[in-house]
Amino acid sequence: MTTKKKTRGEELKPHSINTKEKMNAKKLTIGFIIFAIIVVGIIGYAFLYDKVLKFNKPVAVVGENKIYGKEFNQRVRLERNSYVLQYNQIAVQMVLMSDSEDYVSYYKQQLSQILSILDDYEYLGEYVLDSMIDEEVVKIEAEKRGITVSDEEVDAMMQQLFGYYPNGTATPTVSSWVFEPTSTLTSVQETLIAVPPTSEVPTQAATEAPTATVAVEGEAEIIEEPTATLGVTATAEVTLVPTATEISGTATPAPTPTVYTEEIYQQNYDEYVEGLKGIEIDESVLREYIANYLLEQKLYAAITSEVSRMQDQVWARHILVSTQDEAIAVLNRLAGGEDWNTVCNEVTLDQSGAENCGDLGWFAKGQMIEAFETEAFNLDIGEISNPVESSYGWHIIQVLGHEQRSVETDYDYQRLQSNYYDLWLQDVKANLTIVKNDNWKDHVPTEPSVELDMRVSQ
Fold first, then answer.
1. Cβ contacts of residue 89 below 8 Å, gap of 6+?
2. What is the CA radius of gyration of the chain?
3. Under CATH, which number does the domain 61-167+261-308+412-445 receive?
4. Whole-angstrom Cα distance, residue 406 to residue 446?
5. Using the 8-state DSSP alphabet, how is residue 399 labeled?
6. Any bridge partners for residue 434, and if so which?
7. Which pairing describes strands 221-224 and 238-241: parallel, antiparallel, or unpaired?
8. What is the CATH number of domain 310-406?
9. What pLDDT digit, counting tens, does each position of 237-286 carry?
């Protein structure tokens, strides 16, 4: 058989690709390119957002004041660092007191609480952000009142925090305010508050046994005379009999304490600031934090100066029970003519008032739970309330007095000032436009934190 040779023009050629197939191939290639660009773009944008863009968008706006991500991030770091330092200090104390199970248990509880705060990143972050929002409100209100804080005041506060007092420590001032006596009681009040007298049985003091005289060589001899007492203790007479002692050798001079100079303070401060830089906190953030604290102190003093020591006050007593039915039963007993003191001593849950039959003394508005306080201030002298519910239970209240009088203790006056300031701040914030953006969560750091080998089991 003869095989026919193929001519040059008849050689095999690659399969020709039609136009549609070419277009599909190009689409596939373009698709891969676009996908690659998108992936790279997403990665690049994520990197750019994490490092640059997210810091340009505020996490909160207070009026016209903006709080940016970078300062918020550093403030959270500053807060976390304070908790870590506190944790480490307590941990050292726990090691030093390791022989006492009670102390170890107490310190472990404190350490666990700190860890709980540090591990709840968002909770701590939101707490710091809310604090920064309040600081911006303070700035706005302080500016209206012309209140400012200078760099020199920040420097002075910083020195105090480091225990450096270039002009000596400040002398504490003692309040010259004098307590006013309780108002004269009316006959009605005397009748209401009358408490049956309790007979007191005098306790006879035990007669002390004679004390032996002890003489120690080289020391003073102490002779104590025995004393017999009955209700009155006599002061023991002490006789010192000197004994000659021989002193030899050279006395060792007492060590002289190192004077805390400005140079030492500056060195300590610089070391602290350098440590902050190691956890990505600028010195300016620390100084701003101190300045905001001082500004709020000044504003607080200005606002609370409006609180008069003379306040509308009531004098009340109460009987506390756990249920409404029990409170109604108390009312029925009182309405039936039973003595307040007798009923109170039998049923009240308020152990703090057990000895004085539920007498709460005088109090101004803002010192009691709102429901209790509202009812008390609406009662006439001698009037008994209907059952009043609070978080403690059910109260039956009786008002014994109602008048304008001076707040007696500094503690109660400071509570009034604090409550007044808190209400003032709430009102101011209600009249401001405050926006907290969701992006604040992107700026919450998890560092610094307690080292793993330092963590106690929770």
1. none
2. 38
3. 1.10.4030
4. 50
5. E
6. 62
7. antiparallel
8. 3.10.50.40
9. 434 444 444 445 555 666 666 678 989 999 999 999 999 999 999 999 99
